[in-house]
Design brief:
Number of domains: 3
Number of strands: 0
Order of helices and strands: HHHHHHHHHHHHHHHHHHHHHHHH
Mean pLDDT: 93
Radius of gyration: 32 Å
Low-confidence stretches: none
Strand content: under 5%
């Protein structure tokens, strides 16, 4: 038998390397080299769809099929599809002695080995480590099966009798969301658009896909309400999408004894949701579950009763955090933490909470806004000096950054302080306090209550702490930190 290696002068080792590179690096645009490789392979298959070497070209197109879901040149995907369909018609009904064929158990995780298998098929002297013999791999039935695999990759669900697989688009989405939800988005990711697109996918989902899409929105909601998203419209879009699908689960009922605990990790939750958002993904889930003997059956995972609970919890979280991040934030509860029983400032607690430690991040937003508001209500120079500094330091501790509800209030105070008339010179002889961690905290406590707290290593006079020029410099620094976080019209709005 003449090997494919020397058939028509083709160097299969070079071709298979090119095909595998396209499989692995398909996310490219305007790649004429990729287009030429696909068209060459399609032309060879189309010229003899029932020929002896058809399995080579069918597997080659299956390898390159992910690229054809991306950005191929005009007409490239169509020619590949036509060649694959011709091969399937010519080969699938051929008689053969085999009881099984490799394509029947081939899934997307095994695609990375196809190029190497092709070379070993073409070279009888090469080591052969596959479970199925070479004859089954070269069989017309197997070539037709891989032709259908290629077609299913290009147009998910368009053919039968091939192992289920996640659509390429779904795998791309899992990869993109995993990076984003781990906190390291891919360089080209627009975070607001990516999260909002999940709301759009939920709103437009087919009935069978709704549960999976709701799970994805559940996952991205955790990220969106964490403060990483600075656009209220993103949270609005997510909430509207959940509100829109909630009625579809409202009358759900089931006979399940219980429901599974859904993943509590954002990347894992998003990956499961995307998997369950397509017919192929749901088949992959069920096959994996049956094969492993673990996990809950699909009908319990997507149960409408469970999905109603997911929708309610997700919507409640979105509404609560939307108000906290973008609405009129209530800080009245902070009085109990930051005022003594006699109504005076709890300076020890304020000093503790302005320390730049990670555990103070959870207090920073409410503390910064509370201090800024109280500053405007106080006529005590010592209190005003402390409250201004606390507001400034708290916004620096905020992670990832202060939300609009906080920025709006803090900026109002800081801009009023910065706009106040200033004396031409400072009235004190010593320098202004230095806003450095331990030195600053010890100095502020001593300034406010010298009888309670000893001075720091380099004490400043009370006049330096209450100096209008010092206050203006602190305010200007804080304004510089906050002013670019949101649009000015958002900052000015009441809500």
């Amino acid at each position: 038998m003449k090997t494919v290696m020397d058939m028509d002068g083709v160097k299969l080792d070079e071709l298979s390397e090119i095909w595998d590179d396209i499989r692995e690096n398909y996310e490219t645009s305007d790649n004429s080299d990729y287009d030429r490789a696909v068209l060459d392979c399609a032309a060879r298959l189309a010229s003899s769809p029932g020929g002896e070497s058809a399995y080579v070209w069918a597997i080659g197109l299956a390898l390159m099929a992910p690229y054809l879901t991306w950005l191929p040149g005009a007409g490239v995907a169509e020619q590949a599809v036509a060649a694959l369909e011709a091969a399937d018609r010519a080969l699938r009904d051929r008689a053969c002695p085999h009881d099984s064929h490799p394509y029947l158990s081939h899934d997307d995780e095994e695609d990375e080995y196809l190029a190497g298998i092709l070379l070993a098929l073409a070279d009888e002297s090469a080591d052969w480590n596959e479970d199925s013999p070479r004859s089954e791999w070269r069989c017309p039935h197997n070539a037709a099966g891989f032709a259908r695999i290629g077609l299913d990759i290009i147009h998910p669900g368009s053919v039968a009798d091939v192992p289920p697989r996640l659509p390429v688009e779904a795998k791309d989405s899992i990869s993109t969301l995993s990076a984003l939800l781990h906190g390291y988005p891919k360089p080209w990711t627009d975070i607001d658009d990516e999260i909002s697109s999940q709301a759009s996918e939920l709103s437009g989902a087919a009935p069978a896909d709704r549960a999976g899409r709701l799970m994805v929105v559940r996952a991205v909601t955790w990220y969106a309400v964490s403060g990483m998203v600075r656009s209220k419209s993103v949270l609005d879009h997510l909430a509207e999408a959940v509100e829109g699908v909630r009625p579809h689960f409202a009358d759900g009922h089931c006979a399940h004894d219980g429901h599974p605990a859904l993943p509590d990790s954002g990347p894992d939750a998003a990956a499961l949701g995307i998997k369950l958002s397509s017919p192929g993904g749901r088949e992959v889930f069920e096959r994996s579950r049956i094969a492993s003997g673990r996990n809950t059956p699909l009908d319990a995972v997507v149960c409408p009763v469970l999905m109603a609970e997911v929708a309610d919890r997700t919507l409640a979280l979105l509404r609560t955090r939307r108000d906290e991040l973008f609405g009129e934030r209530d800080t009245s509860h902070a009085d109990a933490a930051y005022l003594r029983a006699d109504g005076r400032l709890n300076i020890e607690r304020l000093v503790e909470r302005t320390d730049s430690k990670s555990w103070n991040e959870e207090y920073a937003d409410d503390l910064g806004l509370w201090a800024a508001r109280r500053h405007g209500q106080s006529d005590d120079d010592r209190d005003r000096a402390v409250l201004l500094l606390v507001a400034h330091q708290a916004t620096k501790n905020s992670y990832p950054s202060p939300p609009l509800s906080v920025v709006r209030g803090v900026l109002a105070t800081m801009r009023a302080v910065a706009a106040a008339p200033l004396p031409a010179e400072c009235v004190h002889e010593d320098e202004h306090p230095v806003l450095r961690r331990a030195e600053f905290r010890a100095g502020m406590a001593h300034f406010w209550a010298p009888e309670e707290f000893p001075p720091g290593e380099e004490p400043r006079s009370a006049e330096s702490w209450t100096c209008p020029r010092f206050a203006a410099s602190v305010a200007e620094e804080c304004i510089g930190d906050l002013a670019g976080l949101y649009e000015e019209d958002e900052i000015a709005d009441a809500r």
